[in-house]
Amino acid sequence: MKYIQNSLLFLFLLLVSTSSVPVTDPSEEVADPILFLPASDLSLFPSTKNVMIDSAHVLDAVFESLAKLRSASCDTSPFVIVHLGDSHIQGGTLSGKIRQNFHQYFGNAGRGLISPYKLTRSNNPVDYSFESDGSWESERMITANTTFPIGVTGMTLTAKDKHANLSFTVSDEADTLDYSFNQIRFFPGELSKIYKPDSADDVPGYSGDDSCTWILKQKRHTLTFVPDTSCLSDTPTYFSGVSLENGEKGVLYHAIGVNGAHFYDYTNHPELFQQISLLKPNLIIISLGTNEAFGKNCTKQQVYTQLEEMVTTLQQANPGAKLLLTTPPEVYAKQRIKRKSVYVVNKKCKLVADVILGFGRERGIPVWDLFRTTGGDNSCKIWQKNHLLKSDRVHFTEKGYTIQADLFFQSFTDHYNEYLELRRR
Questions:
Q1: Residue of 335, 338, 255, 263 lying closest to 303 (CA atoms)
Q2: CA distances from residue 56 to 24, 145, 195, 365, 377 in whole angstroms, order as listed
């Protein structure tokens, strides 16, 4: 009998000591669970496979912070998410829908980072635009032998004409999200030193650390920078983008995506990670792997090493941030067979997904497995059959990316709700 009592006591103590849910004051307000209503039809992919793997309960701290945002009595700083990726993120449909979901359910602290992709002759998210009456030179993180310091958005511009104006406009989204701003955040080496707002009513105040924030007198959707002739010099001034903020509580979601980017492209530019640290991220999501799957010499060891180097460098620059990895979806690859170009399933997508999944388990880093959530092997045939892939069969249609964004947020909020339920017990 004594043996049984001791065993039961041991099990009880073990359960208490291994629980990741913080002990809270019973009188403390606990946020309500989220009833997520996806904008897309998710019936193609069973919810039982939509799992976010987090055996170490790393995301519990994230859920706790987000729960406080949903508390009406709580006055807290924005929760900052930085989402790193490739063309799937740069395009703005996938990342834009994820941002909207976070803002709808956890509060809108502003549009976050915007980058002048259009001025680099690249594709631009549809919800904002940059214009200039001058010409600019640009480099991206994937450019070989870059001569410019790569900025926080993974690319950098410098003006050929120092007297050029630069303007941008951001639009609201989803009819319920107001993306007007009254704070504009710049980063080291940026235009804030030689430019000023074009309106006398918006002479900026300044705040911040190594970055610089213009604090405007009123909210706006558009702004033009004009050169401050008293500050012009021959020293090159670089620009990669700005963060648009509104000073309110909620989520500040920054998407950083560059077409063609790999793990090693990020690691090759440590100055980028240093600027990311100025964003003070609470959560960093890494969504890479598609371009690795097109590498001629793609091996498990190569992908593992490059992922490890990126994660290590990122953690060193952002020790307080939690990480979340995602696996790439399965796509097609084009091959020449009997002198004809044909599309075949890119089997290396599974190789990359397996490495990311294994790395996350080994290091205790959460992973959302998009590859298996959407069907795993031969799942690209499901995307293609349902007209969810673009003609290149690598990128997805707006509907396809919206499904991916909703699947991600469904899994995220399912785990968030589970955390709240454990917290109430």
A1: 263
A2: 20, 40, 47, 8, 27
Q: In whole numbers, what is the pLDDT of the chain averaged over residues?
A: 87
**pLDDT tens digits, residue range 328-357?**
999 999 988 877 889 999 999 999 999 999
CB burial of 17-47 (b: ≥16 within 10 Å; e: otherwise) equals eeeebeeeeeeeeebebbebeebbeeebbee
Phi, psi for residue 4 in degrees, rounded to 5: -65, -40
Could you give the CA distance from residue 342 to residue 336 in angstroms, rounded to a whole number?
A: 6
Q: Going from the N-terminus, what domains does the chain have, and what CATH number goes with each? A: 35-109+250-425 (3.40.50.1110), 113-247 (2.60.120)
Q: Model-level pTM greater than 0.85?
A: yes
Q: For residues 365 and 324, is the Cβ–Cβ distance under 8 A?
A: yes
Residue 342 burial (10 A CB sphere; 0-12, 13-18, 19+)? exposed
Tens digit of pLDDT for each residue in 69-80? 988 666 678 999
203-207, 219-223, 290-294: range with highest mean pLDDT: 290-294
Q: How confident is the model over 180-205, as pLDDT tens digits?
A: 999 988 886 655 566 777 765 555 55
Neighbours of 178 (CB within 10 A): 15
